[in-house]
Amino acid sequence: MSIVLGIETSCDETAAAVVTSDKRILANIVHSQVEAHRPFAGVVPEIAARAHVEKLDGIVARCLDESGIRLGDVDAIAATAGPGLIGGVIVGLTTAKALALATGKPLIAVNHLEAHALTVRMTSDIAFPYLLLLVSGGHCQILLVRGVGDYRRLGSTIDDAVGEAFDKTAKLLDLGFPGGPAVEKMAQGGDPARFALPRPMRGRDHMDFSFSGLKTAVRKAASELEQPPTRHDLADLCAGFQAAVADVLEDRIGRAIDHCRASGTAPTGLVIAGGVAANRMLRARLTETAADRDLPMIAPPIALCTDNGAMVAWAGVERLLAGSTDSLDVGARARWPLDADADPLPFAGVKA
Amino acid sequence: MITRDIPLDSMQATGALGQRLSEALQVGDALLLSGDLGAGKTELARAVIRARAGQPIDVPSPTFNLVIPYEFRDLLITHFDLYRLEGADDVMELGFLDALDDGSVIVEWPDRLGDLTPSEALRIELTAVSDRRQARVSGPAAIVERFLGA
Is residue A48 within 8 angstroms of chain B, CB to CB? Predict the structure, then answer.
């Protein structure tokens, strides 16, 4: 059995976990500022690399303490090396390098998206290849997960992520933060057909998403309401927004399943991850979408869908078992597409 | 300070403005994009970056990630979204001044810049009243004319 310490600092959370190769999470600590509701509609991010520095040592120590594992007994140290906010990523990766150097254990530089992609293998028995819909505040992608280190991005948002569309809709309608649960709650009992909102990309012959136009349509519809809007108006608009998102996700995922089958790679299931996976209405719709095509829909527990250390530790386990570790000179990367073919860039790379 | 109003009736008009801004963009330039949610700030930033790239590369909204660098052969463009920040101290932490030294910056929600607001910046205020969008471009005359012509 292997034991891996995982560190995640690529955006708002400072997190660490200890996970075993027999799929046990011995400790999983996430320090997040989500509780701190601020005036601007959003989690005030852990911008300061310094703030990650201040917290990370204590979180790693507490994590090892809770797990009952001594640092010298772990088999590898894994950390998110990107993509993300570069200052935070550097803090987590450098800490992992120091721990790896001090203990003589291998370092594993994990792609944040890869960690989301593999988490489900820790919580369920699912065989490759499977489809992953990653829907969060910062990401909106459909990936075909063919194996450890073998991912194909089928589609991605060309503008806003879904979680961002929820947060900004909540902000436009003054519903508070976090936006996802606020919009979902307000939508209950609303009439999704009252406002004619667009379904961006639906029916298009690719698997990309776009949510910027939907956000603009919500803004326009909200500005045409009598002020202040009634609860009834808000419920109808939220229900309409949510229905539009559901229609788009359903269309894109359905197309992705069909596309994979047509190209000879039938997925074993549809996996959803990311904070938006917590939305019950969207989960129900995606379960139906998968069921219509005889596929199971699987979602890891919500706590493992949002950013956490356990997913990084688990990706570390998978990589360790595959014999894929990194040298100590590996760099942090602000941009790091999982599937380099999907993102032809005209420039050499990013300083980091 | 001078001001010019540019109607943005269509995606094509946004693309054309992005193209003009992109062509004049050089190290030390700051494009400050303001306007309400849904006014089209990221859309315009995307148009500038894609024009510079010469192809429709991924330009995701930086709201979550706060800052996304694009290093082209001849210019580093750093795209900031300060929406979730509270003030200039946070902006410092993001490496704003370094980004401005090393290349050009495109900033959404520039009111959070406070004292760090570059004096030579090109300000673009996007407004959308029902279906009519407009960009109000302002700044020192030399800057505005360099970007938009005399």
Answer: yes
